[in-house]
Amino acid sequence: MKDNILKDRSLAAEGERKINWVRKNMPLLRILEKDFEENLPFKGIKVVVSVHLEAKTAALALLFAAGGAEVSVTGSNPFSTKDDIVAALDKRGLHVFAVHGVPEDEYRRHLNAALDLGPNIVIDDGGDLVNLLHEERKELLPGVYGACEETTTGVLRNRARQQEGKLEFPVVAVNDAWCKYLFDNRYGTGQSTLDAVMRTTNLLVTGKDVVVIGFGWVGKGIAARMKGLGAHVTVIEVNPVKALEAVMEGYSVMPMDEAARKGDIFITATGNKNVITADHFEVMKDGAVACNAGHFPVEMDLDGLKKRAVHTEELRENVFGFLFPDGKWVNILGMGNIVNIACADGHPAEIMDMSFALQALSAKYLLENHTVLDKTVKKVPDDIDMDVARLKLQSMGVVIDTLTDAQRRYLESFRR
Ligand SMILES: NC(=O)c1ccc[n+]([C@@H]2O[C@H](COP(=O)([O-])OP(=O)(O)OC[C@H]3O[C@@H](n4cnc5c(N)ncnc54)[C@H](O)[C@@H]3O)[C@@H](O)[C@H]2O)c1
């Protein structure tokens, strides 16, 4: 392997402190770690991890290492990479290639350096590693048992590749597990996006008009948390069922052309491109704030915004102000990058505990079954999903009922 690529080794102590804090709050990963250390399921296996590279991701990478794997790590977006965490992983002896804020070509160089490991298992977030393996690193394909995909956008990309008949290994859609999207996409993004908007702007949310674009799992979580803090929430949707759901939840629903004039804070959560256009920015109020919680920084037309602005300035860390000819400012958080990670610390540790337990168990499932799995996008097996929920409840001290034999027989009598 090449030498590790990182910004500053002296940041390792701070990174280690952050990793220790999240590990204290990730009980499922600790249970899995004990098991992996005893049984070494990944002994002799090479695992590459490309997920937003912050403290919780480091805990996942260290879990694979505890299970005997040789691990290489990179970030899935240079703007979410935390240099202190990279330094801590470097000190722990993992192969790590990531620097915060690097341009696209260098980011791709880091992905490639991580892939040089020749992985058997790929942990991906957004589909860039899987894409690279299929497009540019085909020589590594024979060694790959499969991949686990963390997010909605990556699952969509992998399904598109499967439909073209070009998927060369099985991919487990970790995003689509109940214990992922119901908690991570909804509550994790809800809380951490609110955190990002508040800590980046230090402005009031209460009483503001907040426009949430996209009412999928991410949008639902953001809308609920913004409402909880006293904002008036407007939802923008293209899917009539989701729009109706938003109406019944008590939100205003209207077209973006209308909401653009009304909102104080705009948050995109669609996984789609240009849902806020340059024309929308043009009619926004002075001081409007816009940010993106979707995976890729494509949801706002920032090129169009740059062309219309006469001046751009970083007004506060991660608050990029764009001045219009009429004297109005529009503020973009984190330059359109995934705001809860680029401008805050990402999901709470207890949420990533579940998402990453699913990742680790799905990786083990791939390892044990890769010879019989076909090259398609797969569900996380239900028993893994249920085990994660069961263990999480146990770690929270919550006990639930079980069906009696008579109840089970009664319910099963309908399934003929
Ligand atoms: N920030 C995070 O930490 C985080 C966490 C999980 C997922 N994500 C990402 O967030 C994005 C959304 O994920 P999700 O799980 O909510 O997906 P989803 O498919 O459940 O929801 C997306 C919604 O956007 C709507 N939409 C699409 N185009 C639109 C348009 N032009 N205008 C209005 N609405 C539109 C769709 O109808 C859908 O309801 C994805 O890119 C995903 O990868 C981010």
Could you give the topology of this structure?
Blueprint: H1 12-24, H2 27-39, E1 46-50, H3 55-66, E2 70-74, H4 83-91, E3 95-97, H5 104-115, E4 121-124, H6 128-135, E5 146-149, H7 152-163, E6 171-173, H8 178-201, E7 209-213, H9 217-228, E8 232-236, H10 240-248, E9 252-253, H11 256-262, E10 265-268, H12 278-283, E11 288-292, H13 302-308, E12 311-316, E13 319-323, E14 329-333, H14 339-342, H15 349-369, E15 377-378, H16 382-395, H17 405-412
Parallel strand pairs: 1-2, 1-4, 2-3, 4-5, 5-6, 6-15, 7-8, 7-10, 8-9, 10-11, 11-14
Antiparallel strand pairs: 12-13, 13-14
Helix pairs in contact: 1-3, 1-4, 2-3, 2-15, 3-15, 8-9, 8-15, 15-16
Domain tally: 2
Assigned CATH architecture of the largest domain: 3-Layer(aba) Sandwich
CATH superfamily of the largest domain: Adenosylhomocysteinase-like
What is the global morphology?
globular
- Estimate the strand proportion: 15-25%
Structural class: alpha/beta
CATH class of the largest domain: Alpha Beta
Number of strands: 15
Distance between the termini: 56 Å
Radius of gyration: 22 Å
